[in-house]
Amino acid sequence: MSDFPIVVVGTGFSGIAMGVMLKKAGIDSFTILEKAGDIGGTWRDNTYPGAACDVPSHLYCFSFEPKPDWSRFFSPQQEIHEYLRHCVNKYDLARHIQFRSRVTGAEFDAASGTWTVRVEGREPLTARAVVLGNGALHAPSYPEIPGREEFEGKIFHSAQWDHGLDLAGKTVAVIGTGASAIQVVPAIAERTAHLDVYQRTAPWVLPRRNDPYDADRQQVFATQPDVAAGHRHELYEMFERTTAFVAGDPSVEVITAIARDHLETSVADPDLRARLTPGQPFGCQRTLVSSDYFGAVQRAEVDLVTTPIDRITPGAVRTVDGVERPVDTIVLCTGFRAGDYLCGIDVVGRSGTTLHDRWAGRPQAYLGLAVPDFPNFFMLYGPNTNQGGNSILLILEAQSQFVAAALEAMGRVEAATVEVTTEAMARYAAELERDLATTVWTNGCRSYFHNASGDIVTQLPHTSGWYRDATASIDEADFTFGRGAGQV
Is the pTM above the cut of 0.85? Predict the structure, then answer.
């Protein structure tokens, strides 16, 4: 398939995994388009103070490229970014990458069996297949707070950290208490003159042990790969058994008790503890991991504000009770548009219909990967593939292997197109809806897992092992393989 040009979008874990799997499949005619000037996706963009992973290091790397010298149990942002650079170099992906190439759309031409990929500010590319690996955590979500544009101080999203700003002596407001906030707040609290933390929904927080891997342990992992593999497998099994997203699962009570004990032993003041106590069942939102957040919000110079925000004034944040809290800098720790798939990209399929219109606000894809009427088009980290317990890299590896297998199958049968059938999509959607109904996410939960209508659009109601088995091979009965112009 050397004459089969493929366009891959993004150079985060998804795009890099796809590039490696294409290479392993003997496919070298592909281009990876990256909107920025460097690789890394989420781990390039999120450089805020305290940025780190909340998945154990030895699970947060590819199975085909273990890293024996992780410095800690949970890796900091810089180390993960360097790991991605290492993968790009080792697997000879750099020559396939075109930087500063923001994809704005892709359109399929049935007559030629090709995709035209539009790139901002340059000539479009022609491709036989398109794989979106642009991830779910790349488009910052900005809160709809009146007055945000009128603020006269510094205001920025945590994913666009202003490293030229010195917070010493500043009065700072952090809006949001999600995954980025519980890392940012402890990292900056002691540097500020005063810090207000605005909480809309109290998160569940588990304690976080972050022991270092000393040089001796790293040496053992480097020289005895079976020991390193055993350590990874132990971590995998521990997280794979965590199925707290299933309603009524007995592990929910155990993990909830750990989180409650962490809160009760960390926060002595009963009023503050009550405000930090989640009002939603465990698992409704992303579970957070931190052993210094509760300590940070108890500092004398830190206030936890739970009264809803009314508006931002030129120099303060005003809550609905009329109280104005003066502030110099506002940090928006408000997450990403995780459920807004294809954000900024218009994809037009065989019938001339855009994928946005096809979905009509409810993104759905076969195994989160493919959609009928969109031949030779695949998504990594697509709808309902965010796994509730284990490392997302396990899902991304399985997806990239599946896509490579689908493209190999095309070559094997000498087809011009591969496309999931309408029947297979309908069957999978029905099964997904049935299985989502068994999860805690349907029980009045609201989070980025849901779209505006309340549909669960990001989460997979199964373990990573289930997904690996489901994508282990392509069921050719679920796909049609089409002939192109001139083929008989």
Answer: yes
